[in-house]
Amino acid sequence: MKREIFTIILCCLSVFASGQKEVYLQKNNILYYQDYNQKPNALISARCKLDVYYPKSSTKFSTLIWFHGGGLTAGNKEIPAELKDKGICVVSVGYRLSPEVTAPGYIEDAAAAVAWAFRNIEKLGGDTSRIFLSGHSAGAYLASMITLDKSWLDKHKIDANRIAGLISLSGQAITHFTIRKEKGLAATKVVVDELAPLYFVRADAPPILLITGDRELELLGRYEENAYLMRMMTIAGHRKTRLMELQGYGHDMTKPSFPLLLKEIDRIVLSKNIGAR
């Protein structure tokens, strides 16, 4: 009888434990340049910080590095509410903005933040084989540059092909309009140079999901830029680039994109046979 009661208690405790909600922790304002040979200054100290939101009890979790939008001239690091409590870690990155810096300063910041994640995320329980890059608009541009142009992470002795996947939300594929403005060029002047993701199409890149708003509602040419990037990646031999167009949504298309982003993380993780998020 005592053994039966003990068994019932254990079962109840097991059910209670399995029904408990995962606890998440957040570490804020981590200076990601502290490990690198970058001279500190007031702007770096103010802008080059990241926040980490991660599941306390999980191990080998996926990590999403999120770059905010704002045209490379505005915005602050943020952890979107739609990405919280989803079983993943979110690293939200702040970076220097134009005109305080010009290209490629903000790209250098993005690379340093990604390198920080590769060097530190295991300490929190994460898996470096499951680090994904994403962002909206200017943030997606930065994530795309770091993924496709391997030279930025090479400076940190990290192979960009270790990135598990890129999910770009309405990012620029040509040279960003703020960079063109810094050069005195009009927004309608199309430039594809070493500061354009399109310049670095390659067959061996990580999986890429490009999501844009409706081509008739997006910022000028944004859907077409991404469609051309997808086409050129395919021609170059990359078989893992996909494009989604969200009908009825303009440039502010993050909310309907987040479920697709999370689904893409699961799809890639499962395809690698390393378990779901």
Automatic annotation (TrEMBL):
Q: Which Pfam families match?
A: BD-FAE (PF20434)
Look up the domain of life of the source: Bacteria
Write down the SUPFAM superfamilies for this protein, in alphabetical order.
alpha/beta-Hydrolases (SSF53474)
Ordered alphabetically, the record's keywords are: Hydrolase
- Which InterPro entries does this one have? AB_hydrolase_fold, BD-FAE-like_dom, GDXG_lipolytic_enzyme
Kindly list the residue ranges recorded as spanning the membrane.
none
Keyword Ubl conjugation included in the entry's annotation: no
BD-FAE-like domain residues: 50-215
**UniProt GO molecular function:** hydrolase activity
Its name, as the record gives it, is Alpha/beta hydrolase
To which species is this protein native? Pedobacter lithocola
